[in-house]
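Troubleshooting: if your tokenizer reports a length mismatch, compare your output against this known-good record of 143 residues.
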Amino acid sequence: MVIFYKIEDVAKMVGLTKRTLRYYEELGLLIPPERSEGGFRLYTDDHVERLKKLINARDVLGFSLQELQQYVAMSEEFINQRDEIRQTEDVELRLRKIDELEQTVDKQLEMIDLKLEKMKNMRSEIHQLKDRINEAKKKYKRE
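Known-good structure output:
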């Protein structure tokens, strides 16, 4: 049995505003939900799970909206490829599809690695600033 949620409920569940939910839908980050006879959006648990993944990618990895769109596209590609593998009986074709699946995962890892590298560089710059501050403190304590 599918449970439907109103936009207010989903907004509270995931910690976003209703406006942000509509915006994510507009950008294609969120699949448009069904509508009630009165035109109200009817979200499902799948919508909530997808939103939680988006929020996690945004908050933990610091993805911009454009990066989120790329990440979501890759996630959808992964799901489609996985489904194709499950439906394929031919061993050769299945192996080719598994290679494609691996390439998609590699692209996702590249995105994450790039973010991590930027974070490491930024952290290093801040450490250098801290070292210079400590040197200045030592200099003035000696005088």
